[in-house]
Design brief:
This protein is about 35% helix and about 25% strand. It is α+β, with helices and mostly antiparallel strands and about 290 residues long. The termini are far apart.
Length: about 290
């Protein structure tokens, strides 16, 4: 519909703001036209002193760099209080050609945040003709986390873990980057080359600390990520393990210069999971 059609069909007319020249941020556009649709704005109507809402919670996400890239992986369990609410939830998402996000915390808020983030990146590229830089993406996501601060104060916290390949890096072998966040929107570049968030993060990070090698190949990195999630599930009840019976395996996304952000197939993830479990049968401690 062009602008001349506005008013001709009252039932289909778009607001005038849709035809105004704005910037390349879809989030800013949404804030001006329909602010109630932003993830952090919906809790403002919750009465003060209301009982906290108990929704589904995503748990453990791990990330690790390798020679020429970075990967991110997440278990599949969602909890509600002491119950397993879902066994096959997906918490790791490709958001554009060279980056991916994993989510921990209140699942509904986190999923909405990631979807809006992916739209934001596509919108920017369409308007500007070039993709947002990796630092720009990380900062944009930090703003979205900060926008949910009111919800976080009411127990609806969502904390993402962001990974990407920096196309502007002068060191291609070390261009994979990991960025973590806190609930108030602070962003932190993880310089050790590995990180984890969620309820099992302490155990997963301890595993990564021993196994990670920044110059390992991608296959070894996937194995290390699976080992870390296995260790997390071994000590944290909210983290789902490698479920060979139901064939539910962690979601793994690798990001490289050659292939971009690619989700590993369930068949490939299952092969690695089988190998990890068989090895643990012989050596339970890893």
């Amino acid at each position: 519909m062009d602008q001349s059609s506005v008013g001709r069909y009252p039932g289909a007319a778009l607001p005038a703001s849709y035809f105004m020249v704005g910037n390349s941020s879809f989030t800013d556009f949404l804030a001006a036209t329909s602010p109630e649709l932003l993830p952090g704005r919906r809790v403002s109507s919750v009465p003060a002193g209301a009982e906290p809402v108990v929704g589904r919670h995503g748990t453990t996400i791990v990330a690790a760099t390798f020679s020429g890239g970075v990967l991110i992986a997440g278990d599949r369990r969602a909890t509600r209080g002491n119950l397993i609410a879902q066994r096959d939830m997906e918490k790791v998402f490709v958001v554009d050609d060279y980056s991916a996000v994993g989510i921990a915390g209140t699942a509904g808020v986190a999923l909405e945040m990631v979807r809006l983030f992916a739209v934001e990146l596509r919108h920017y590229e369409k308007i500007e003709g070039v993709p947002l830089t990796l630092d720009g993406k990380a900062n944009k996501l930090a703003g979205m986390v900060r926008g949910n601060l009111e919800g976080a104060m009411q127990g609806l916290a969502a904390v993402p873990l962001f990974v990407g390949y920096d196309l502007d890096s002068t060191e291609p072998d070390r261009a994979g980057r990991i960025v973590s966040y806190d609930v108030v929107g602070g962003r932190y570049d993880e310089m050790l080359g590995y990180y984890s968030v969620g309820s099992g993060s302490l155990f997963a990070r301890s595993s990564l600390k021993k196994l990670h090698d920044p110059m390992m190949e991608v296959d070894a990195a996937v194995r290390v990520a699976m080992e870390a999630l296995y260790d997390a599930a071994d000590d944290d009840s909210a983290t789902g393990g490698l479920d060979l019976v139901h064939q539910i395996y962690p979601v793994v996304v690798t990001v490289t210069a050659a292939d971009g952000a690619v989700r590993m197939s369930d068949e490939q993830a299952g092969q690695v999971a089988d190998l990890v479990v068989e090895t643990r049968k012989r050596k339970p401690g890893g």
